[in-house]
Design a protein that fits this description.
By secondary structure, the protein is of the alpha/beta class. It contains 13 helices and 11 strands. The chain has 2 domains: about 190 residues, Bacterial extracellular solute-binding protein, family 7 (D-Maltodextrin-Binding Protein, domain 2, 3-Layer(aba) Sandwich), CATH 3.40.190.170; about 140 residues, Bacterial extracellular solute-binding protein, family 7 (D-Maltodextrin-Binding Protein, domain 2, 3-Layer(aba) Sandwich). Helix 7 links the parallel strand 6 and strand 7. Helix 2 packs antiparallel against helix 11 and helix 7 packs across helix 12.
Length: about 350
């Protein structure tokens, strides 16, 4: 994989040779290690790239830059918007600063299960959400809403979180996302925003007591070395977004655009399966290294009650009118999905 310096040189050379016949070069950056097995982010880009190159017979050449080689998620998003690279897999945390109404996706304790997640983001609401992002940013096309590896779990070095009261006295790392901070505070803990690159050291030195992420992230970053408990609270689900530069996309033929959309759907399906396998296997492996627990239904209901009450106030204070409309549609889609039963 090439560095950002090499990439910029390639961009300049491509511009100089613009008149020559060549394959469309599609550069995709993300923040995960280059391992397709057990890593949903890289798996998404790998499946997408292989599918696109095969379906276009090499007319679109996909290059993947993992491990933040091209910069942080926020920097890569700007690079896509500027046309420096063609695609990125962006976190919700990198999108909310440019589109604050996306905070609605931090609705806590919303989904009963992953099947409901798939129905919502893979259905009518997912399409509305993609179009809303495109309209707000103006220079990107949303081609995929992908699984990050499952619901958030909470890890800490003090004790398993079994009750609402167990949050008290804990300092929990959050992303620099105001909704996450408000949620953790509502549950009774202290929210401590911290860059992901500083989390392991922060946990190791006791600057923070815990953090929240999907189970595969906990296991593959070896947080069990500096944490003693993982609580499967499933309080948040933050999808990933595959975004491409609008000018690049519109410069493709109609057939190539359809191929990109179909390949992205293949990648979404692949990462859903991989996400569930990784989550299950990693949970089993974590049980050999730390305490893993799930709070009772009654305690989860108590957590949900205080969290939803506080977050409803937060949304009322911060969302625009269009954001509030989108939140209403989001809740309706969730309620419908939660009420459905497979094959019944």
């Amino acid at each position: 994989m090439r560095s950002l310096k090499t990439l910029l040189a390639t961009v300049c050379m491509t511009a100089l040779l613009g008149g020559a016949a060549h394959a469309e070069l599609m550069r995709i950056g993300h923040d995960a290690p280059p391992e397709a097995k057990g890593n949903v982010t890289h798996a998404y880009s790998a499946v997408l790239g292989a599918s696109v190159e095969a379906a276009t017979n090499g007319d679109i050449d996909v290059e993947i830059y993992p491990n933040n080689q091209l910069g942080s998620s926020e920097e890569r998003l700007q690079q896509v918007r500027d046309g420096i690279i063609q695609g990125t897999i962006a976190s919700l945390g990198s999108l909310t600063p440019v589109y604050p109404d996306l905070d609605i996706l931090n609705l806590p304790f919303a989904f009963d299960n992953m099947a409901s997640v798939y129905k919502v983001y893979g259905g009518e609401f997912g399409t509305k959400l993609a179009k809303a992002i495109e309209a707000k940013l103006g220079d990107v096309v949303v081609l995929g809403i992908a699984d990050p590896g499952g619901f958030f779990a909470l890890t800490n070095s003090k004790k398993p979180v079994k009750t609402l009261e167990d949050f008290k006295g804990m300092r929990i790392r959050t992303m620099t996302v105001p909704a996450h901070q408000r949620l953790i505070q509502a549950l009774g803990a202290e929210a401590y925003p911290l860059a992901w690159s500083e989390v392991y050291t922060g946990l190791q030195t006791g600057v923070i007591d815990g953090q929240m992420n999907p189970v595969p992230t906990v296991y593959r970053t070896k947080l069990y070395e500096v944490q003693t408990a993982t609580s499967l609270i499933k309080h948040l689900y933050n999808p990933l977004f595959f975004l491409v530069n609008k000018q690049f996309f519109e410069g493709l033929s109609a057939e190539q655009q359809d191929i990109l959309r179909a390949s992205s759907m293949e990648a979404v399906v692949a990462t859903r399966g991989l996400g569930r396998i990784s989550e299950a296997e990693d949970t089993i492996d974590l049980k050999e290294k730390m305490v893993v627990n799930t709070p009772s239904k009654d305690e989860l209901a108590r957590m949900r009650e205080v969290a939803v009450s506080e977050m409803d106030k937060y949304f009322d204070e911060t969302l625009t009118d269009s954001g509030k409309t989108l939140l209403t549609e989001f809740k309706a889609a969730i309620n419908k999905a939660n009420a459905s039963v497979y094959l019944k």
